[in-house]
């Protein structure tokens, strides 16, 4: 067992930390207040190779391992979770899904610019569309239909809560082709945002990750060529589940970053703020909160790294990624609330950052499978 990071992993971690401090930190409070999509930050992430981190270089990616991805996600999420959710969706849902299950032609046409995050010099990212107004956790109950018309599918329906909904150029859309086959009748289709029949709704006004662009997207008689189906006929739900196992490592790392960002702020504050004639860190109630934060964050990090290691070593990481996501998101929520408490009244205002981290933490317990869904995946996995 070796807990040391390699030299390359340390370099990536430092690059991500520097990027978070120099590019993400300036304006983070204003972007949150104004719900401004961090386009400039995402564009610079693309230039750094962080939008296709694990994609092989021959498809425009950086060819890094999943451990490096966890390290980078943690550092960026310490500062701006609206940037990191966009990074997570593009890397581990869209790029990974196409790399693992796409055809060579799909990889050339879509994966390569998506991994570079740019096409013709413009931002080029993707979105993953499983959720619907009546099919969130209950993801097999897809109402969106992809009617088989011979050489194309006719796509109709509504997807909601879509991250990168308006800024993405490419969507991976899950839709029902054959209701009678249930989950085996679902297909995943590659859809371009500017095709006729695609309509993007208004941006959601959210509690947290307010810079991230979350939208409802409607499809009306959208013609999707057969060659844009990912995998065999009926593979769409399995595709979603397999891809989400990797996606959950991304969101686990996001939660880990939110937790460690909140902890670092709380620790520094506790060293300087005085009450009753001494720094508040000298009050055991505060010191013990910091001890618990440190311990839980370390445990969350180990779960994230183990899931990443399993993925890099081609093992089944379904249970590990759900455990990492569940534990890290619970840790993020708890740590961020306690970090506000350590700051007292100052924690309740925007300038000290912890109130934003507390709002951002909540979503990590909901998206890419709620905490309850992670417990379903873990319990089914260990009991089967
Ligand atoms: N690989 C292959 N097949 C799989 C599979 C996998 N990993 N997981 C499930 N399947 C198959 C099952 O074997 C089953 O096949 P049979 O009917 O032949 O047995 C079929 O798919 C249906 O599976 P389940 O019976 O397990 O399905 P279920 O209805 O009980 O649901 C669930 C299981 C775990 C709750 C699943 O629906 C789920 O994960 N829901 C949460 C959805 C989710 O995470 N959404 C995230 C959207 S993306 C997002 O959120 C992005 C973002 O915010 C940034
Ligand atoms: P529901 O499924 O209705 O759940 C409601 C409550 O019931 C939850 O507490 C849930 O855990 C619980 N529950 C449901 N079923 C069970 C059960 N069997 N056992 C125990 N408890 C249960 N989706 C995408 O496809 N792509 C995206 O890019 C995307 N981005 C998102 C961004 C944001 C900001 C948000 C808020 C959501 C996003 N989602 C996205 C959707 C997200 O994945 C869903 O919100 C999530 O899966 C939960 O679905 P739901 O909201 O329909 O809640």
From TrEMBL:
Domain named Acyl-CoA oxidase/dehydrogenase middle: residues: 127-222
Cofactors demanded by this protein: FAD
Residue intervals of the Acyl-CoA dehydrogenase/oxidase N-terminal domain: 6-118
SUPFAM superfamilies referenced in this protein's UniProt entry, alphabetically: Acyl-CoA dehydrogenase C-terminal domain-like, Acyl-CoA dehydrogenase NM domain-like
InterPro entries linked: Acyl-CoA_DH_CS, Acyl-CoA_Oxase/DH_mid-dom, Acyl-CoA_Oxase/DH_mid-dom_sf, AcylCo_DH-like_C, AcylCo_DH/oxidase_C, AcylCoA_DH/ox_N, AcylCoA_DH/ox_N_sf, AcylCoA_DH/oxidase_NM_dom_sf
Acyl-CoA dehydrogenase/oxidase C-terminal domain ranges (all copies): 236-383
Keywords: FAD, Flavoprotein, Oxidoreductase
Family (UniProt): Belongs to the acyl-CoA dehydrogenase family.
Name of protein: Acyl-CoA dehydrogenase family protein
